[in-house]
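Re: your question from the hallway

Yes, I did run it. Sequences:
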Amino acid sequence: MKNAPDLSAQIAKSIRDAIVSGDLDVGERLPSEAELSDQFDVSRSTVREALKRLAAQSLIRTQRGATGGAFVNKLRFEDAYGQQITTSALLLSMNAVDFTTACEARFALERACAPLSAQRRSADHLATMRAEITRQAQPGLSDESFCASDVAFHRALVDGAGNPVLSYQLAGAVEAIEPLMNMITFTARSRDRIVGLHTRIADALEARDADQTVALLDTLADYTAELGQSVAAKRKDTPKGN
Amino acid sequence: MKNAPDLSAQIAKSIRDAIVSGDLDVGERLPSEAELSDQFDVSRSTVREALKRLAAQSLIRTQRGATGGAFVNKLRFEDAYGQQITTSALLLSMNAVDFTTACEARFALERACAPLSAQRRSADHLATMRAEITRQAQPGLSDESFCASDVAFHRALVDGAGNPVLSYQLAGAVEAIEPLMNMITFTARSRDRIVGLHTRIADALEARDADQTVALLDTLADYTAELGQSVAAKRKDTPKGN
DNA sequence: CATTTTTCATTTGTCAGACATTTAAACGTC
DNA sequence: GACGTTTAAATGTCTGACAAATGAAAAATG
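Structure:
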């Protein structure tokens, strides 16, 4: 029933467990590849494949030279963002998550941040949001650039909550949806509408008005879903548009 | 300035980009290791290390035999859960995220699910929650088992929202916090309190009362934070309690 | 003695070649 | 046609070798 996993996978799991359980501390050096070969009684290639697996998950980093080796990596939030976003984006595309579902998740999560952000946002966060709003209002901006600015705006909102765990979790939801958002053709009118809502959201955050922020986010969520539905209707016509 | 990354990392990136961009479709077979060696002009070992990196991210799966090879894996939500939880747990422990911050994030996200769950939860979700409540009320339950059941209860609540994207994002927040929760010693009184709140949450969901669900979650969040603070106070006494 | 240079041992990165194992397809045999 | 056998192709593993990086010890130098 159970296909025996590769040796390299087993060894990777063994070391990973040691890291997760805390048997191996951050910064600690693993035995050299030769020593690991002896310990696990496998060849060096197999050990190396195991180590590469761990490196791909940012669990270890390797260094060459006399005092080199593999070290338990301190996983930083910034490092995890990238993987989180890649994974989320693939999940959305490979599982054919429809725009409505992705949008719902994104705004539900963002809504959760809004009260905290209203309470704690710094002047810096507010400045970032205002700057992105200005960019979004520029005529001649490509749809891609508009979307990227939209992401930056919402990232600032989320970061304003001052909770790195929330920021991390939301990075996936907010950024992974960008490819889906990029399918929307933003007319001048819809951009005006969005920029207007963004401005009012920034105003509400500046006034530290949590209720108003949430209400505006709900409005924006509804409007975004509406825009998305027109895209969904279009995609019906060209099902395999590659 | 920039350390040239390993060949295997470069090759992994090259293939990963092809997958993310859609150049390689789900289920498609990659060239054999020998062919990849030729294409990238490296040895087979290097190609293998690159493939192991991708396998560690669940981007490909390999199969032995005549028609075997490496295939672009369909990334399923269930596959991503595990990685998400491992990463989140490591982020919390390695960055010394305090209980309050983690707890805040968890309940903020869960709160976002509550209205949707009140609207859409199935009888099945409700039954799971009731079953976990029953388990939690049993005397003699270990703290670990109590926590595990707590996680299962909240997972059911989140799944009730019927949005796989939300469930995925929340898996990390809810499950990664379990190790921190496990540090709490649940007295008979605190268990009673929690079980009581869980029961009222289940009741509210059964009645599809979103407002009440959110209010009860807020109460539970406050109480959990309170319990966590007593743990934090204790940990001050034994800073390196290993 | 202090400083600079050289040597050197250690460790990871890469390569080449071999054999084992698995798997499905091709081939014979009945 | 059904059933066993062979075979080819692919991954999994092992061995041994060399290249490259790197810090530390040793040696040379002033």
